[in-house]
């Protein structure tokens, strides 16, 4: 009877690991693990996570954040540390070719400002007010993390940093920028936006 109980426990544990590896996500919060495993008991969830990390099936990256392997997506980790959050600022601007400067740091819009380093990954969280941060305009979900479109990242940047140097704004959709600028409720932002449009728009 004892053997049967042990085997049942092993099967359940194996199923839990299979569920993780069946997911396209590489990083999971405790809440996400509870949903995937259908675990409603906080104590059982804690015990389960402890067991898997001890056995090397899960890797603890930060408080309440885990990876199924150490080959995880660093941008996915960036948006799992604080909620809500999304990749923005220089990270998106660089991807879009609006700035040429390369940054090792991943820049994130978040509820508060903080710099973190986890392993080799560096993260810079910049605080946006709730009415902006919670507004989904110009933010998409890509590869299991949230990321700003170039226009949203551009607006986030001039909203927080004001007079910022950009190398190339040829790809920017100015109409979309002015439409999206309303979510910031900032006359100063609109002023900066008009100056950039006059300087860069063709």
Structure, described:
The protein has 202 residues and is an alpha+beta fold. The protein folds into two domains: 2-67, Orthogonal Bundle (Arc Repressor Mutant, subunit A), CATH 1.10.10; 75-200, no CATH class. The chain is built from nine helices and nine strands. The protein has helices at residues 2-21, 30-37, 42-55, 74-78, 89-95, 130-133, 150-161, 174-180, 187-200, and strands at 27-29, 59-62, 65-67, 86-87, 106-110, 114-118, 121-127, 139-142, 145-148. The strands form three sheets. A four-stranded mixed beta sheet has the order 4-5-7-6. Strands 1-3-2 form a three-stranded antiparallel beta sheet. β6 and β7 (121-127) form a beta hairpin. Residues 1-11 have low confidence and may be disordered.
